Each structure stands twice: as C-alpha cells, then as structure tokens.
C-alpha cells in the first residue's frame, strides 16, 4: 500500500512537471491562431525553460534572502500540492492527507511568496504588482473558499481523492450541480493563473501587469522555476475541473494499461480545456482593475447556486 | 420508456440553466447577449414543457411548448433585434440603485428567501416530488429576478427583457404548480408581443412630442421619407 502511494506520488509529480509547459504552449498557440499568427511551436515551452535554466541568475542589489529561496519554495509548495491532486490515477490510500483546505493554503502560500519576491527587489513595478496581487487576492480568496465549499458539499468529502472518486460515480447528466460547479471552477483557473480578462500574461505594460510585474526582476534559473511553478499551478487547477466534470478514464487501480490510458486521456482532455481557455482569452479584453470583482461575483453566484440546488434536490 | 427515465434529469438540468440565464440577464451589459440569453431561457422552457409532456402525457404541455417556441424563441427576439439594429445601441451600461455584482448578491438572497418560504408553504409538494418543488422555487425566483432586472436597468429595451423574463418565471411556475389553461397562455403571449411593439415606439419616441415623433422615427430609420414603414 505504502509502495503504491510512493509510486503514485512519483508518477503524479513527474506527469505534472512534464505536461505543464505543453499546456501553456497550447493556450499560446490557440491565441496566436485566433490573431492570425503562426504561434510558437508546441514544444517551445520546454526550450524556453532549458534556455532559462542555462542562463545566469542576476539579483537586484537590494534583494534579500527571499529572492534566493522564493523560486525553489514556490515550486516545492506546488509539487506538494501536486501530490494531493490525482491527475490520472486515484490510489486506494493517500500518501499525504489530500485535504482541500490544505491544498488551498498551499496555493495561497505560493502566492504570498511571489508577492514577497515582488517587494524584495525594491523595484517600483514589483511593488506595484505585489500590491495589486494582494488586493485581488483579498477579494478572490473568500470566493475560492465558497467554490471549494460547494465542491465539498456536493461530493460530501474534504479529501481531494474522495472528491474525485465520488465524481467518477456521478455522471454529470445525473448530477446537474456538477455541471453548475464547472463555471466557478473555470473562473478560478482564469483568476488564479492570471489570464485575460483578469490579467494579461503576455503584457509588460506598467499600467496593466500584475503577475508579470512581480517577476520583472527575476532572471535565469529563478525565472525558469517561477514559469514552471505557474504552469504546474495551472495544470493542478485544470485537473480539479476535469476530474470532476469529466472523470472518464481516470485510473482506479494500478495496472500499466489503465495508467497509460488515464494519462493519455487526461492529456487529451487537458488539451481541449486549453483550447477553450485560449478561445476564452481571445474573446475577451482585459477588464479594468475595478471591474474584476464582477467576475468573482459570478463565480460566487454559481457556487452559492450549486449549494442551493444541491439542498433543493 | 427510456424517455420517461431521462426526462426528470433533463428537466433538472434545464431548470438550473434557467436560473443561470436569469443571473446572466442581471449582469450582462451587451444588448445582443441579453436578447440571446432571453431566447435561450425561452428555449429551455420549451424543453421543460416537452419533458413534462413526456412525464405527464398532457397534450396542453405540447401546445405550450410549440407556442413558446414560435413566440418567445423566434418571434419576440427577432422583433427586439430589429429594434436594436435600428436604434444602434450595442451596450446597456446604465444601472439604477444596484450594479450587477450587487444585483447578483440580491438574487442569491431572493432564491434563499423563496426557498425558505416555499419549504413551509409547499411542504406536501416537496414530500411528493422534489422536482416539482425545485421548479416552483426556480419559477418564482425567476419572476423576482426579472423584477430586479426591470428595477436596476435604465434602458427601455433592457427593461422589456426583464418583463419578458418575469413572464418566463410565471410560465415555469405554471408548468410545475398550477397549470394555466392554454387559452390564458395564448393571451399572455399576445400581451408580450404588444409589449414589445409598444417598447419599440417608446424607445425611439418617449421623449418627443407627437409632431416630432415622425421625424424621430425617420431619424432611427423606422419610417421612410415617403411615410411608409421601412
């Protein structure tokens, strides 16, 4: 049992690390195609990471120890989170307690580290990015809690493994609340990964950037680690959405054939979701900063609605 | 046999989507999206009526579905779109009393209030069928959400869509709790068509005198220079 749990942890983390840059590139490719451009190669994300890992890391003269440890800590935290979220296989026994509240705290800790990094370099843009990130965070966190509360209420468990296992028994057509829940979870992916209309990951304009502003003074290996942790975070949130609304193919037992099938199906489902995210990003313009809470409110509305409907049904 | 098993599931999904569309009518700023959402909401009611027809076997429900399809999914939205194209209004950014986030919050409270009230009033219905209870709660919630849209929107066309959404709520409630006679349903549809026609007149001419009205119609390309309707 313990051996199986370790295999799960290794496979899960390795799979997440390998596919995350691919998903980022799929979104970029879709956005480029919509704009009438060729777009980057689907493997460009891996080339960029390899290039950044080889480059020298420079630090601001004001930078303290936060700038040195934050990139490693941010990725480590997300890898721990990756152990909690089954991507293509739900083992019988959990290696760590995959509590959804702990998962939320891990995401918040990662965000806090990046905000501190933005402040640590003592640059104006970094400070501005951190300030904006924390302002947004103060509004989105309660909404995130309500979204996950709805998820817990519908599935009846705090454990992510149990939530996914329950989802495999509930075909969406027979549980409409699961379909309803997919909307706030999708909005959560957009918000947590800083995508249009909340933030624009492509921009470096001083007036608009949030996430990029905090990383402006980061370079080389550190930047690669942040890029990778950003991609991992996106994959984990995508896995939560996909494994709840479309759990088809997720392996419930340890056998090579089932695991490979589960991995391939997740890759396909993830690619489709990335295409949807890319199209969504292309269809909307970036919102004005003070309009962003409107989007959060929609997520909140859907989450509360999910709980109501579950009570009424 | 399979249809009678699937019908409750599809009615549930449609009911939830009806509520979602109600929320969207409160928050959307694009006029074309508002009309499209109303059209979608009406189409969901057609599906609900068909589902109930399969479950209950009443031919009246089939007639209601056909009438709703012809009038609310096709006729009224086409008419509103025509007005919208003529007056060249793309977005409704004017709100009174409440902005969309506040309206969504209030609509959550409305749904909760309706649920709490109905849980006591329709206790026997809830015990008999949770589906019909859900339908009645969503129907009345939609009426109140439509009313909220009428209150917070400032443009005449948006207000009309609020009224139309209210009527959709009445229809949903009627389908699940007290079935309205088909004749009444037919008269309501005629009322709605007149409402839309009146709105088209109000939208372009409410702030003009009778003498200026003709000029105003011509300004919005609703009347040709020769005096004929264009």
Automatic annotation (TrEMBL), chain A:
Q: Out of the domains of life, which is the source?
A: Archaea
Keyword set includes Cell membrane: no
State the UniProt keywords alphabetically: Membrane, Transmembrane, Transmembrane helix
Query: Is Glycoprotein a UniProt keyword of this protein?
Result: no
Output the Gene Ontology cellular-component terms.
plasma membrane
Question: Could you tell me where this protein is found in the cell?
Answer: Membrane
User: What residues form the membrane-spanning segments?
Assistant: 6-27, 69-90, 96-119, 139-161, 173-191, 235-252, 258-280, 292-312
The main location class comes to membrane
Give membrane topology per the record: Multi-pass membrane protein
Q: Which PANTHER family does this one have?
A: FORMATE HYDROGENLYASE SUBUNIT 4, FORMATE HYDROGENLYASE SUBUNIT 4-RELATED
The entry's protein name is Respiratory-chain NADH dehydrogenase, subunit 1
Protein species of origin: Methanospirillum hungatei JF-1 (strain ATCC 27890 / DSM 864 / NBRC 100397 / JF-1)
């Amino acid at each position: 049992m313990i051996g199986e749990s370790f295999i799960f942890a290794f496979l899960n983390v390795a799979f997440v690390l390998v596919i995350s840059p691919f998903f980022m590139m799929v979104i970029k490719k879709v956005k480029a195609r919509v704009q009438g451009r060729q777009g980057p190669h689907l493997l460009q994300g891996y080339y960029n990471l390899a290039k950044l890992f080889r480059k020298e890391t420079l630090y601001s003269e004001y930078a303290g120890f936060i700038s040195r440890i934050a990139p490693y800590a941010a990725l480590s935290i997300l890898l721990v989170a990756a152990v909690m979220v089954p991507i293509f296989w739900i083992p019988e026994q959990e290696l760590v307690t995959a509590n959804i509240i702990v998962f939320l705290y891990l995401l918040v800790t990662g965000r806090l580290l990046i905000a501190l990094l933005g402040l640590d370099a003592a640059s104006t843009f970094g400070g501005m990015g951190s300030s904006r990130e924390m302002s947004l965070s103060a509004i989105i966190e309660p909404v995130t809690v309500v979204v996950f509360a709805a998820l817990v209420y519908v599935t009846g468990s705090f454990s992510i493994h149990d939530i996914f296992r329950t989802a495999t028994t509930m075909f969406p057509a027979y549980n409409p609340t699961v379909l309803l829940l997919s909307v706030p979870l999708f909005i959560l992916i957009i918000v947590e990964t800083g995508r249009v209309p909340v933030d624009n990951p492509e921009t470096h304009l001083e007036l608009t950037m949030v996430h990029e502003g905090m990383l402006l003074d980061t370079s080389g290996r550190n930047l690669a680690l942040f890029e990778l942790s950003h991609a991992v975070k996106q994959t984990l949130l995508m896995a939560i959405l996909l494994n709840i609304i479309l759990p088809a193919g997720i392996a419930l037992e340890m056998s090579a054939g089932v695991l490979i099938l589960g991995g391939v199906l997740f890759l396909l489902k993830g690619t489709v979701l990335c295409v949807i995210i890319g199209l969504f990003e292309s269809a909307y313009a970036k919102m004005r900063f003070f309009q962003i809470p409107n989007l959060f409110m929609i997520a909140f509305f859907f989450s509360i609605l999910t709980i109501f409907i579950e009570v009424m049904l | 046999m399979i249809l009678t098993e699937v019908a409750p599931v599809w009615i549930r999904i449609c009911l939830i989507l009806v509520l979602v569309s109600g929320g969207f009518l409160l928050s959307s700023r694009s006029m074309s999206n508002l009309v499209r959402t109303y059209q979608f909401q009406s189409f969901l009611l057609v599906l609900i009526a068909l589902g109930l027809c399969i479950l209950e076997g009443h031919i009246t429900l089939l007639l209601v579905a056909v009438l709703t399809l012809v009038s609310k999914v096709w006729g009224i939205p086409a008419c509103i779109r025509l007005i919208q194209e003529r007056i060249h209004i793309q977005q409704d950014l004017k709100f009174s009393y409440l902005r969309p986030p506040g309206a969504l919050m209030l609509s959550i409270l409305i749904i909760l209030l309706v649920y709490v009230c109905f849980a006591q009033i329709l206790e026997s219905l809830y015990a008999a069928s949770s589906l019909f209870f859900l339908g009645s709660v969503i129907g009345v919630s939609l009426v109140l959400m439509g009313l909220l849209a009428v209150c917070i929107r400032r443009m005449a066309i948006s207000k009309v869509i609020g009224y139309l959404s209210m009527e959709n709520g009445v229809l949903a409630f009627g389908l699940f709790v007290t079935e309205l006679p088909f004749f009444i349903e037919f008269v309501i549809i005629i009322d709605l068509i007149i409402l839309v026609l009146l709105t088209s007149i109000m939208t372009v001419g409410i702030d003009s005198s009778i003498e200026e009205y003709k000029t105003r119609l011509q300004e919005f390309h609703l009347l040709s220079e020769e005096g004929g309707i264009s």
